[in-house]
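Feature request, filed as a ticket because there's no other form

It would be nice if the structure record came with a short human-readable summary line next to the tokens. Right now we just get the raw output. Example of a typical job, pasted below so the devs can see what we mean:
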Amino acid sequence: MDMFLIVFILLLLIGISNIINHFMPFVPVPLIQIALGVVFAVVPAGGHIPLEPGLFFVLFIAPLLFYDGRNVSRKAMWKLREPILLLAFGLVFVTVFAVGYVTHLMIPSIPLAAAFALAAILAPTDVVAVSAISERVKIPRVIMHLLQGEGLINDASSLVAFKFAVAAAVTGSFSILQAGGSFLLISIGGFLGGTLLAYLIIRFRVLIRRLGMEDVTVHMLIQILTPFVIYLTAEHFQVSGILAVVAGGMFHAIEREREQSPNLSYQVVSRSTWKVLSYILNGLVFILLGQQMPDVLSEIWQNPDFNSGRLISYIMIVTAALLLLRFIWVYASWWLGWKSKRAALTKPAIQPAMITTVSGVRGAISLAGAFSIPYTLTNGNPFPGRSLMILIAAGVILLTLLIASIFLPILAKTVSNKADQSQRNAEKNASIQIKEAAIRMIRNEINDRNREAAAAVISGYENTLHQLKTEESEMDTLAFKKIETQTRMKALEAETRYIEELLESKRIDREMAYLFFEYIRRMEVAVTHKMKFRLLNIWTIFQKVLIRFFQFFYPNKERLRRQRRLRYLKIKQIKIEMAEAAIHVLRSGINEENREISFLVISEYRKFIRNLKRPRDLEASLHFIQQQRELQEKAFQAERDEIQSLFEKGKISRGTARKIRQQINIREVYWLEEYHLHG
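Raw output as currently delivered:
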């Protein structure tokens, strides 16, 4: 029962952390979860959960890295293979020696081998923490791919280095040749072993599907167990379990893309399940991290040999050494050249290097590694400086999280990711040009028979164009909303004046005029007070229900139906005339400031008129749909022709052309589905 309550409280804290983040978005979720973990550990009714490093790795790290391996961009990782390898291997080993020596010189009581072990567990960056922080900060895409690739690989290299450093500290002996050979064996063996195990598990799933077992639940259970099986098997054969689960996740992603007849329900369940699992596991990692802090601190504070001010200075110096070394390594590598021209990483720049440096957050793997430091040496003596090493590791984790939380938003705002921005601008400009080409083609095809259908297709393109051009505009959102409100109110004033003219000329009576004035008033409320408009709509629907209820008891229902029919036709005609009056006023008042929003509102009025004029008989409706289909198919072809023309002129790249063609294909599929439903 106690364990159930602890698990329940931990899950509850994950939910509370996201509620707090909703009201305090400037504080990253990981920091909130660490704080909640600390609170849960220190309150009298709370509980302490001991951190077992082996269980922690298999229960949390293995599935999270498997999930990241399934979702990481393999194409981006391949383009960035040189910088990723330089960070994941080169920087890790440089960190072990450089930060290890700094730590030993600063704290002579920690032997050199033990200092190397501390540096090794502080070398890996935490991809989970970076991903959590990046949710509220827009890190340039190429840097995010670099950080993800580094985080997936450097765990293995740092843990191998940690293993040999601890062995050297415990036994007092070390062989660099043996360490190098073991490192290659463990790394390559882990990667190949994870790939092989993933292949065998996928073949097993294919086999049971061929035997008729299509149960989504069974296949999902196999997939959830996959990272645990891969990790435990790899560790049993003494190769890297971390690299194994990363390789297994990437192989699953490749197999998913190559699958000839994918089970859509399985894919939906898989995506949803892993999303929930990663959300829970991420939260538990940081809450458990916070849970360990009070014990670590109390163990040190109670020791009279340690001074709190000196301990804080140790943490700050080690953190500064880690970040400074990382910046020098990244910037120097940029100067020497990453050899990744397609990844836009050839030109050295301070700000991207600083973003990459600050994003090097340490996390749960570092703390789990610190707790796995043995208590004693082979001769039975206590491991030197174990408690102090754990405290330094915990302090560095918190400090790097704080630094990233404070400085990453500032750096990300000032950096200009020119490659991404250029590509987005190219895609946007190309999209605008192909939409305009489609409109030109439709206008050339207009005749007396298809005029209404052409107007319907053009209206859809004009709405899309408005959205694209609004995104392109630098106009402030509040200013845009103000102009939109003014334009819509101007149109409604034109409708009001038209009804007043009809009332003066006695084309309508006061009762009908009152109905139109009420309709216009509701539209004005919709423009200025959205919530009040919803309440008015609810009240209007309630009134109509009451009227229909009392009409049910009316004696001459046929006569009432004829009266309602004549009244409906008259109201419909007047609404068409009102809309035309509004269009006339809007057209006469167009200027540079309100051009885009005026065209949008006019387009809405035209669509409203078309819906009122649309024939109700089946034959005419089918004829309208057929004409609309023919014009839309020609419009899609005009878009494709314009893409080819832009590509041949060198205005867009092959990748941009391929991406826009794919978007057209998707729109065409959705449109055909809608056409078949209505046709």
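Something like this underneath would help us a lot:
The chain has a mean pLDDT of 77.
The radius of gyration is 33 Å.
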